User: Fold this.
Amino acid sequence: MYKTHNAIMDLAARELCRKLRGTQTKSEILFWRKIRNRKFHGLKFYRQIPIFYEFDDRESFFIADFFCFEKKLVIEIDGNVHNYKFKQDAERSNILNNLGLSVYRVRNEEIEINLSLVLKKLSLFLKNQNQNLE
Assistant:
């Protein structure tokens, strides 16, 4: 379930996404420049997009930093705050995986130090993902 029928929740998620797009980190901006407009393997990526889910009979949502519908891929760019959020990140990844989505995490520092290497690793991740589906 990537969408919701709850109009109030949908509106709240859209507003939050709009706000986040206006306050992107340096790493998110650098990464976005390389993947937007099908620049990366011809894939269409969206930034700051809500992904709705149901857990314990309650509907909620995550906002993915980047999302590719075609590959069912969530890309999360993690800053220093994630050094202390291992459990929450693992729970989030588990929920997303249960929705049939793959999660690829990359650190801000990796992007800022060597974006080319990050993109090569992401290419390899996608290649391995495709091989697992065959």
In short: The chain is about 50% helix and 25% strand. Strands lie at 46-55, 58-68, 73-78, 102-107.
